[in-house]
Amino acid sequence: MAGRRYVPNPAPRQTRTTVRGGATHVPRPAHAPVASTAEARVYAPADPVHLGLTLGPLRRGPADPTFRTTPDGSVWRTSRTPEGPATLRVTQRADGTVEATAWGPGAQWFLDQLPSLLGASDDPSAFEPRHRLVAQTARRRQGLRLTRTGLVLESLIPSILEQKITTDEAYRAWRLLLHKYGDPAPGPAGGDLRMRVVPDPYTWTRIPSWEWHKAGVDNKRASTILRAAKVARRLEEAAHMDPPAARARLELVPGIGPWTSAETIQRTNGAPDEVTTGDLHLPGIVGHALAGDRDATDADMLDLLAPYEGQRHRAARLILLSGATPPRRQPKMRRVNIAEW
Fold first, then answer.
1. Alpha-carbon distance 242 to 260, whole Å?
2. Which UniProt keywords apply (predicted)?
3. For residue range 77-122, what is the model confidence (pLDDT) as tens digits?
4. 258 — phi, psi (to 5°)?
């Protein structure tokens, strides 16, 4: 065309990589929230479901980037599904039905898993209370169902972060790592709610050592997460195993013991009998509630829960929900933030 000169498009700008301490570090781009078409579904549970009680164990602290509750009663959650990142919003109607909306490449997968997420595979009728406190709590908390996410790594990594430290420190590390290395949540959750999707296994393995340190994560826990991320595909298979076999699969990874495997499988497999051992507080809480013994050990706790064989995790959940905790008589666990060293 006369009077106009053709100018070719410039070459795309390349991402700069830097080498620090012998390792190549690729800066993670700051993506905008992923826009996607919403998928919707209405689910009618066969039995009453309380969204907060059922989904609450998936929340890692009040500022968890993967979990939000909003004033309208909705629960928002993000996951990296086998089909890709997804955001789910669930709202309960007055008639007990649940309205679910999902965004992202994994939206359909998320909606297909909704019944399991809300405890459809859980059978609370198999539970028979043996103590008055437990029976009273079970009557008050009839909407409690044991969730089953079917996704291992997203529950395993925060459980590893919670090893041997205060929950506040673990929640802080989870929050910082997700905001820096997670992806923005698909749909509206990636905007005002600032929700994030848990990083993929490869990204976990590429986090530099100094970033773990800045998040307050010591080398032992960081190394355990790296080992788990490298065999993520094999660990994800545990979600489809019987709980004892699933725990055994997780515990093949050095650094993952009975406490971590139980905390994970409770969420991923909806396991009603996988009670947590090795916990700093749980034996004393169960001992105080059932026998007036605040100094109970793991062995004492298992003896007290023996009448609930097959449903020991549910019994422990109900005891925790009863509020029958012993009065504190010692200082809280000392907080040690290695990022300040």
1. 17
2. DNA damage, DNA repair
3. 999 999 999 999 999 999 999 999 999 999 999 999 999 999 999 9
4. -60, -40
pLDDT digits (tens, 9 = 90+) for 22-74: 333 444 444 555 556 899 999 999 999 999 999 999 999 999 999 999 999 99
- For the whole model, what pTM was predicted? 0.87
Whether 249 is in a domain gets the answer: no
Residue length, the chain? Answer: 341
Q: Is 304 part of a structural domain of the chain?
A: no
Find the domain containing 51 and state its range.
39-123
* Number of domains the chain contains: 1
Instruction: Say how many C-beta atoms besides its own lie within 10 A of residue 109's C-beta.
Output: 18
Q: How far apart are the first and last CA of the chain?
A: 66
Between strands 39-43 and 75-81, the pairing is: unpaired
Low-confidence ranges of the chain (pLDDT < 50): 1-30
Distance CA 122, CA 191 (A): 34
In a domain, 56, yes or no: yes
Alpha carbons 126 and 178: distance in angstroms, whole number:
38
Q: Is residue 52 part of a domain?
A: yes
Place of tokens 């309960």: 92
As given in the structure block, the two tokens for residue 41 are 């579904």
Q: With H, G, I as helix, E, B as strand and everything else as coil, classify residue 43.
A: strand
Residue 160: closest CA among 168, 151, 152, 170: 170
What's the DSSP call for residue 311? -
